[in-house]
């Protein structure tokens, strides 16, 4: 049997939270109850970077300074005017929702295995006593194409597979542009820094957070940092939930229509 690169390792298999939520529970099962977190502060807002301004001769310098500050002080920013069409974004959002709404009999074909974390399930579950997130994920390698697990991306239903094919290449191109400008902000030649990531692995992760009977007791996704160069987040709706850590406080991210939230990952962190 052909062996495939396994960038994520393994995770213990756990039940689907989406299916659990369909049971009309009045209380949350004990394993999903999380310790109380600090309340998020309402201000300040995370920085907003305009890609058109970065690409404009007239405004590039000032927008590059904003990008530099956003990466240095926050590690996060919202990206607007990024050049990815709103029609494609809407198509991605709708088809992701349809994918999660498939019958369990269909989703089982894409479930995680004990040998690979890719697929439906939860990530980084390492013990039977570990607290679980109130949410399901679907994660897979998208690029390079030869690294795709044969039972995941190639078996996705149409037109979802074609939509993600286009979207994954758009995200790679956008990531390369962002990384190039980050390099410029650090006085690194743009092509030099892009060459470091041009042949890298792209993973796509989709998170689904069903309603909870006790939302104050659960967490959709446990606090973490991303072991990536960049994470480009697209939120399916404008419900607030994402929070980032700054100056020892949790700051909520208020999603903007058609904007991406960009997270500078651990690989690009400069000490």
Walk me through what this model shows.
Keywords: Iron, Metal-binding, Oxidoreductase, Vitamin C. Belongs to the iron/ascorbate-dependent oxidoreductase family. Residues 200-271 form the Fe2OG dioxygenase domain. With 271 residues, the chain is an alpha+beta fold. It has a single domain (15-267), classed as Jelly Rolls (Sandwich). The protein has helices at 17-21, 51-55, 60-74, 86-100, 104-107, 160-185, 190-197; strands at residues 48-50, 76-80, 119-121, 136-143, 202-208, 230-233, 243-246, 249-252, 260-264. The strands form 3 sheets. It has a 4-stranded mixed beta sheet. Strand 7 and strand 8 form a beta hairpin. Helix 3 crosses helix 6, helix 4 crosses helix 6 (160-185) and helix 6 (160-185) packs antiparallel against helix 7 (190-197). The radius of gyration is 19 Å and the shape is globular. The mean pLDDT is 91.
Q: How many DSSP-defined strands?
A: 9
| Largest sheet data | 4 strands, mixed
Counting copies of identical and different chains, the oligomeric state is: single chain
Number of domains: 1
Could you give a quick summary of the protein structure above?
The chain is an alpha+beta fold.
Tags for this model:
four-stranded mixed β-sheet, 29% helix, 271 residues, alpha+beta, iron, IPNS-like_FE2OG_OXY, 16% strand, Fe2OG dioxygenase domain-containing protein, oxidoreductase, Jelly Rolls
Give a topology summary.
Layout: H1 17-21, E1 48-50, H2 51-55, H3 60-74, E2 76-80, H4 86-100, H5 104-107, E3 119-121, E4 136-143, H6 160-185, H7 190-197, E5 202-208, E6 230-233, E7 243-246, E8 249-252, E9 260-264
Parallel strand pairs: 1-2
Antiparallel strand pairs: 2-9, 3-4, 4-5, 6-9, 7-8
Helix pairs in contact: 3-6, 4-6, 6-7
């Amino acid at each position: 049997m052909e062996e495939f690169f396994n960038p994520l390792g393994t995770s213990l298999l756990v039940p689907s939270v989406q299916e659990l939520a369909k049971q009309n529970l009045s209380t949350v099962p004990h394993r999903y109850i999380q310790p109380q977190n600090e309340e998020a502060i309402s201000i300040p807002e995370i920085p907003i970077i305009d890609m058109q301004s970065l690409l404009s001769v007239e405004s590039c310098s000032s927008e590059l300074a904003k990008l530099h500050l956003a990466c240095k002080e926050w590690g996060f920013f919202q990206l607007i005017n990024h050049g990815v069409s709103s029609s494609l974004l809407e198509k991605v959002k709708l088809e992701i929702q349809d994918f999660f709404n498939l019958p369990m009999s269909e989703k089982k074909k894409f479930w995680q295995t004990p040998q690979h974390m890719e697929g439906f399930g939860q990530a980084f579950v390492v013990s039977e006593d570990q607290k679980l997130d109130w949410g399901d994920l679907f994660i897979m390698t998208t690029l390079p194409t030869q690294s795709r697990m044969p039972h995941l991306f190639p078996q996705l239903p149409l037109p979802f597979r074609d939509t993600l094919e286009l979207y994954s290449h758009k995200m790679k191109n956008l990531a390369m542009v962002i990384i190039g400008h980050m390099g410029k902000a650090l006085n690194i030649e743009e092509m030099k820094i892009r060459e470091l990531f041009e042949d890298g692995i792209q993973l796509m992760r989709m998170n689904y957070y069903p309603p909870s009977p006790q939302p104050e007791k659960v967490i959709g996704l446990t606090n973490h940092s991303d072991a990536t160069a960049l994470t480009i987040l697209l939120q399916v709706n404008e419900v607030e939930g994402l929070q980032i850590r700054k100056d020892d406080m949790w700051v909520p991210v208020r999603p903007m229509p058609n904007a991406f939230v960009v997270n500078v990952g651990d690989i690009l962190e400069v000490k």
